[in-house]
C-alpha cells in the first residue's frame, strides 16, 4: 500500500531512547528439532567457552558504544541456554551483571529444554539472577514429540517444572505447539489438560510454521508432511483459547496467555516496537533507529566479536517502516494500538491520518474495532483468528 507519508514533506522523527531490554543468544542445542530454523548448532564439540569469551567482549563493546541506563528485562534464548554447564552458567550470568545495570525488579527469562535443568543448574541460574524460565514442552504426546524431533518425553516436562518450583522459581511458562504432523484435536485436548494440571502462570501456544532450511520443509516439498487441514488447525486454536480463557488466563497477545501480572514484559517490548539490545551469534537488535543482525556461525562470530561489534548487517529504519512495524506488532496485543503511544514514538504523528484507509477497511471486514479509552484500535474476536490478514495491511 502507498504510505501517506510518501506524499508529504513533513516526516516526523522516530522517538529514540536507550534500550531497556536485553536479548542474548546462546546458539547451542542437544539436537536440532525437525521444524527449527533458529540459529542453533548441536553443542557436542562446539567451542562453548570461547563463545562465552567472545560474548563477554561483545557486551563490553556494546556498552562502550551505547551505554545503557537501566535494564528492565533480560531474555536469554537459543538454542537451549540450559545446555551450559553450571560453571559456564555462573560465568555467563555474572558477565551480564557486570556490563548491564539491572533494575531491582528486572524480569530475567531463560529458555530451557525439559531434561536439561537439574538442581545444580537451577541453583546457578537462581544465584545468577534468572527469575523466569520458559520451557519448550511443545506437546505432552510422546509419539508427537518423536515426530517433531524432540528428545525429551512428556514426563521430563513434569519433572523439570517440579524441579524449578522446588528451586524457588515461581514465574514459569511452557510453549505448546499445534498443527503438528498427524496431530488430532483430541491429542491437542489431552496436551492442554496436562499443561493446565501444571498450574503455571503463563502459556505460549504456537501453530507450526514450515520454515525453509528445516527437515520439515524438505518433507513438505516432497509432499511427505501430513499436516492437519486448515479447519482442523483453526479448531485447535479455538479450543486453546476457550480452555485457557475458562481457566482464568488472559489472552493478552495472539499466541500468549497469562494470569494477571505474569505477562512477558520482555516480549511486550517487541510488541510495542521499542528498542532492545541484541547480543550473540545471529541475534537481532534495534536501537537508535537502526536494526542489526549479528554474524551467525559460531566460529565466525567468535573471531569477529573478539575484534569489533560482530555485525552481519545493519539498516536504518525509515519512519514509514517503523510506523508499519508499530501497527503490525502492536495489533498482536489484546489491548491493540493507541494514539498516545503512536504520538510518543513518532513525535506527534496522527494514527488515523496516516492509516485511516486501512483502518476503515479492516473495520468494515469485522477484523478491527475502535477503542475509546485510550483512543485506538484492536483486533475483534474474528480478527484474532485472521490476524495475518490484518498485519499484512500495514506492511
* Count of runs of 4 or more consecutive helical residues: 15
Give the C-level CATH assignment of the largest domain: Alpha Beta
**Largest sheet: spatial strand order:** 9-10-8-7-6-5-4-1-11
What is the CA-based Rg, rounded?
A: 21 Å
Q: What is the domain total for the residues?
A: 2
CATH superfamily of the largest domain: Aldolase class I
Helix content, binned percent: 25-40%
Which structural class should the secondary elements be placed in?
Answer: alpha/beta
Largest sheet descriptor: 9 strands, mixed
Give the second-level CATH assignment, the architecture of the largest domain: Alpha-Beta Barrel
Separation, N- and C-terminal Cα atoms: 8 Å
In terms of quaternary structure, the protein is single chain
- Low-pLDDT residue spans: 1-13
Beta-strand content: 15-25%
Determine the mean pLDDT. 91
Q: Characterize the overall form.
A: globular
The CATH topology annotation of the largest domain reads as TIM Barrel
Based on DSSP secondary structure assignment, what is the total number of beta strands?
17
Amino acid at each position: 500500500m502507498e504510505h501517506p507519508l510518501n506524499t508529504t514533506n513533513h516526516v516526523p522523527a522516530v522517538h529514540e531512547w536507550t534500550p531497556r531490554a536485553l536479548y542474548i543468544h546462546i546458539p547451542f542445542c542437544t539436537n536440532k528439532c525437525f521444524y527449527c530454523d533458529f540459529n542453533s548448532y548441536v553443542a557436542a564439540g562446539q567451542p562453548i567457552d570461547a563463545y562465552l569469551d567472545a560474548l563477554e567482549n561483545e557486551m563490553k563493546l556494546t556498552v562502550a558504544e551505547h551505554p545503557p541506563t537501566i535494564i528492565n528485562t533480560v531474555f536469554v534464548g537459543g538454542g537451549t541456554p540450559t545446555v551450559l554447564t553450571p560453571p559456564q552458567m555462573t560465568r555467563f550470568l555474572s558477565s551480564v551483571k557486570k556490563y548491564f545495570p539491572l533494575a531491582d525488579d528486572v524480569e530475567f527469562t531463560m529458555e530451557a529444554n525439559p531434561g536439561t535443568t537439574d538442581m545444580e543448574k537451577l541453583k546457578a541460574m537462581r544465584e545468577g539472577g534468572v527469575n523466569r524460565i520458559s520451557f519448550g514442552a511443545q506437546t505432552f504426546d510422546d509419539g508427537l514429540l518423536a515426530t517433531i524431533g524432540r528428545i525429551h518425553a512428556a514426563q521430563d516436562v513434569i519433572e523439570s517444572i517440579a524441579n524449578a518450583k522446588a528451586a524457588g522459581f515461581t514465574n514459569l511458562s511452557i510453549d505448546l505447539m499445534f498443527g503438528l504432523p498427524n496431530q488430532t484435536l483430541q491429542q491437542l485436548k489431552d496436551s492442554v489438560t496436562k499443561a493446565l494440571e501444571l498450574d503455571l502462570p503463563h502459556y505460549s501456544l504456537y501453530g507450526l510454521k514450515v520454515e525453509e532450511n528445516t527437515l520439515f520443509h524438505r518433507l513438505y516439498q516432497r509432499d511427505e508432511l501430513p499436516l492437519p487441514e486448515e479447519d482442523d488447525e483453526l479448531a485447535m486454536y479455538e479450543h486453546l483459547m476457550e480452555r485457557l480463557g475458562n481457566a482464568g488466563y488472559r489472552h493478552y497477545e495472539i499466541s500468549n496467555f497469562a494470569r494477571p501480572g505474569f505477562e512477558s514484559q520482555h516480549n511486550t517490548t517487541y510488541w510495542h516496537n521499542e528498542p532492545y539490545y541484541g547480543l550473540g551469534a545471529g541475534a537481532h537488535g534495534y536501537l537508535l533507529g537502526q536494526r542489526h543482525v549479528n554474524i551467525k556461525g559460531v566460529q565466525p562470530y567468535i573471531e569477529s566479536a573478539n575484534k569489533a561489534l560482530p555485525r552481519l548487517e545493519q539498516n536504518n529504519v525509515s519512519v514509514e517502516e517503523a510506523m508499519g512495524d508499530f501497527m503490525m506488532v502492536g495489533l498482536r496485543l489484546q489491548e491493540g494500538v493507541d494514539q498516545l503511544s503512536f504520538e510518543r514514538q513518532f513525535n506527534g504523528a496522527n494514527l488515523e491520518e496516516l492509516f485511516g484507509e486501512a483502518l476503515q477497511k479492516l473495520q468494515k471486514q469485522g477484523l478491527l474495532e475502535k477503542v475509546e479509552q485510550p483512543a485506538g484500535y484492536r483486533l475483534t474476536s474474528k480478527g484474532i483468528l485472521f490476524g495475518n490478514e490484518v498485519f499484512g495491511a500495514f506492511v
